[in-house]
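Re: the request from the purification team.
They wanted to know what the chain is likely to look like in 3D before they choose a buffer screen. I agreed to run a prediction and write the result into the notebook, where they can find it.
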Amino acid sequence: MGFVAGEVVAPGDPRIVLEGQWGYQPGLAITVNSGSRISFTFNGTAAQALFDVGGLETPPHLWVSVDEAEPELHVVDQPVIELTAEKAGPHKVEIVVKDVNEHVNRWNPPFGCAVVFAGLVLDSGTRLRLSGRPSGPRLEFYGDSITQGVRALSAHLESEGVDGSKSYAYLTARALGASAYQVGFGSQGIIKAGNGEVPPGTESFGWNFAGSPAERVEQPDVVVLNLGVNDETLSAAQYGGYLSLVRAQYEAAEIVALSPFNGKHASEIEAAVKAVTAAGDPKIRYVGTDGWITEADCTDAVHPSVDGHAKIAAHLTEELSKLLPSRK
């Protein structure tokens, strides 16, 4: 018997868990960030995940897994992804954004590339279950192409080489049992605009995309910053201004400022952190990453490979464990 449409479930339904930086429009949830996730559990044998692909120049890439099976790649150029199981549920579905292409507009609607989730259609005999919300620590990562996972798989310039689920940010969050906002924009710096019409870090922070403020129900425990390598010049004062923006948004969070993995602007970043801590903010700390990886751990001498990201994640997990009460 073929699929017989039953209940239609909106993306904002509490039975669907969205993790990462998502903005909302009527009937839609939108992310422009690799590493964002959709998860839910259904009883039955079939469901359909719906996506609005109208107007997209370049389709996003998703990993889709049912019942923790090996993820399957879906290039989202059609509005429906079929989700099936041989036997009646319960079945857990996890959809991870592998990549939102950095080379077309992903900031100013209408987008050239974005994941525009329009909800679910359940088979007439299928029911959606209420899933538990993530209960671990809350982390946020802000970075550039490395945080995005660009060229992690290979030196390929487009989405074929990119995987947000192999990024150090994604791996660190999983290792710590944390929910995470993974915000990485290729070519972006503190004061330099990124690819895809993305503004500089000082202007994009606090926004999902243009016109969509990033709203948080709960404050993060730790915010990790990994920007600066794309800035041709960067002063301690400019980085300090970015720290002030983050602190104004998150008054109680631990803020971790990483030096770029190739060491660029490390002294300016460290000086900025020392200045703000001397001014009375002890919950901002500098973490030098010298020696975490070498060029041999990269696919193009700059972007970490899968193994390179794993090495970074191991170091960062150790650092963040010191800041999370449950890990002390």
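For the purification team: The mean pLDDT is 96.
Please add any questions underneath this entry.
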